[in-house]
Design brief:
178 residues; alpha+beta; 6-stranded mixed sheet; 5 helices; 18% strand
C-alpha cells in the first residue's frame, strides 16, 4: 500500500483494505504521544468509505474541547507522532499533516482538529457514515470524483471546489435529520 501525494497533486486509487489498518496504527501512535482519548479520534474522508476510489491520504478528525486552548505540549505530542501543524487557514479547524520524510514534499495523512461536538465534528463523521450506508450515493460520489479528471481542471483547490456542492448536499441531509 502506497500512501501520499505531493503538493497540489490529485490522484485517485482503488480502495485498499490496508487504509483501515493504517488509520488504527496511526490512532494508536497519536494516543501514545498525547492525552487524547480513543473516542476523540476518527477516520474520515474517502479512505474511510468502503469500496470507493480515494486520494491515497488518510484523513483523521480529532475532536478537542477548545481549539484556542491547545498548547505547545499538545502539538509537541503530535510532532512525536509524526504530524506537523500546517499554515492552513480554515474556520474552526486546525490542520496538521504527516509526510513521507523530512523534505515535507509528500503528505500521507491529515489531521483535522475541530471542537468536539461542534458542527464540523458532526458533518465530517456524518458524511462518512451516510456514504457507507447509502450505496447509490456512494457510487454517485465516486463517479463525480472520477469525472473531475475529464474537466481539464487540476490541483487540489479545483478538485475540492468541484466536489463542494455534493458535499454540502450531504451536510444538508444531516440538518434535515436533526
Amino acid at each position: 500500500m502506497k500512501l501520499g501525494l505531493k503538493k497540489d497533486e490529485v490522484v485517485l486509487v482503488p480502495h485498499e483494505a490496508g487504509w483501515k489498518r493504517e488509520f488504527a496504527e496511526t490512532k494508536e501512535n497519536i494516543l501514545k504521544y498525547t492525552s487524547l482519548q480513543p473516542h476523540q479520534i476518527e477516520h474520515i474522508g474517502s479512505t474511510s468509505i468502503e469500496g470507493i476510489h480515494a486520494k491515497p491520504v488518510i484523513d483523521i478528525v480529532i475532536g478537542v474541547v477548545n481549539l484556542d486552548s491547545l498548547g505547545k505540549d499538545f502539538f509537541k505530542g503530535l510532532k512525536h507522532a509524526g504530524f506537523y501543524r500546517l499554515q492552513v487557514e480554515r474556520p474552526d479547524e486546525i490542520v496538521c499533516a504527516k509526510f513521507t520524510d523530512t523534505t515535507f514534499e509528500t503528505k500521507t495523512h491529515f489531521i483535522h482538529l475541530v471542537e468536539w461536538g461542534n458542527k464540523k465534528w458532526h458533518q465530517m463523521r456524518f458524511f462518512r457514515d451516510y456514504l457507507n450506508v447509502n450505496k447509490a450515493v456512494k457510487k454517485e460520489y465516486e463517479l463525480l470524483k472520477d469525472a473531475f479528471f475529464k474537466t481539464g481542471k487540476e490541483g487540489i483547490t479545483e478538485y475540492t471546489n468541484y466536489k463542494e456542492q455534493f458535499v454540502q448536499s450531504i451536510f444538508m441531509k444531516m440538518d434535515e435529520l436533526n
